[in-house]
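During data preparation, a discrete fold description was generated, and the record follows.
___
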Amino acid sequence: MKNLILFITLSLFTHLVFAEAWKLAKESDGIQVYTRNIPNSDIKEFKGISKMQTSMDSLMAVWDDTNSCPKWFHQCKKPLLIKKLDFNNRYLYQISDFPFPASDRDILTHMIVSRNKATKAVTIEMKNVAHYCKGKTSLVCKKINASSEVRVVASDGKLQFQPLKAGGIKVIWRQYIEPAGKLPDWLVNAVVVDMPFKTLTNLAKLAKTKKYQQAKLKFDDQGQMVGFFNKSW
């Protein structure tokens, strides 16, 4: 098992380092979706870009609300917060609802958040931790270990929120996922374009709803986010 994990990690590193240039795959409603081929894989990596007229507080509130996942993250269902070490460090689980006849996939992700004090940009790194619950006996991990879904064992992503001088936030989401199991490449690569476009569309709409608009981030002395002054989710 250790050798398999090492092989997947090295393969993923090779993919990301030697990937080719981005190509525009879709542009509509102010959203651009780019894809690119990566070595030794038939699955494309994607990058979605959108400028949203909302605040950092509201976007981070949506992200912080685990239960909101199905409302904005394309194909997300049954999200679970596995463990929260602090505001900027948590482990999440979700099932991805793949279209018939494909089987659904599930994924475990380690989310690590950082904030650039000078630019105020926020970066959320999303690292695959497929085997995090192995051997663990918490109620959440017991439920995850009992899952019959196809487990995603290789993925790498980064979500960035960049404040704009003219107002609003530029959102950049880059993601590479090997969905595992037997899936036709055309189906996966179609999802690769739909996922960022629909996710960014939904995120912009949800961030404008009242309960997230009321959110106010709290910071420590180093300028890092530590939570919210008020929460309505």
About this structure: Residues 6 and 12 are 10 Å apart (CA to CA). Confidence is low (pLDDT under 50) at residues 1-12. The chain has one domain: 2-216. The chain has six helices and twelve strands.
